[in-house]
Amino acid sequence: MATFVEPPIPLKEEQRSAPILVTAQPVLQVRGLVKRYGPKIVAVDHVDIEAYPGEVLGIVGESGSGKSTVLRCSTSKSSRMRVNTA
Question: What is the pLDDT, as a whole number, of residue 53?
Fold first, then answer.
């Protein structure tokens, strides 16, 4: 499956506006991440993450928005995270 992503920098001005076609597999992939505390509190709800070779991934949000929870869940042994090291 091919995915369109923003091109890495630096590029010529005329190249910056067009997305590029990436045929490489993501080096990190998380699908449908959910974290609940008890039956009523949903901390993270269906988060998808993909990072491709050469990309820098940043998780940004307000205090208490679930950034650390997403990272902790993504790296736990029970997560369905896929890491491609090839």
Answer: 85
pLDDT, residue 6, reads 56
Run of H or E residues at 51: strand 41-51
- Which residues are CB-neighbours of 35 under 8 A, at least 6 positions away? 42, 43, 44, 66, 69, 70, 73
pTM exceeds cut of 0.70: no
Give the pLDDT confidence of 7-22 residue by residue, as tens digits. Answer: 555 656 665 566 666 7
Name the residue ranges covered by the structural domains of the chain: 25-83
CA atoms within 13 A on the CB side of 79: 23
DSSP β-bridge partners for residue 33: 47
Burial class (CB in 10 A: 0-12, 13-18, 19+), 79: middle
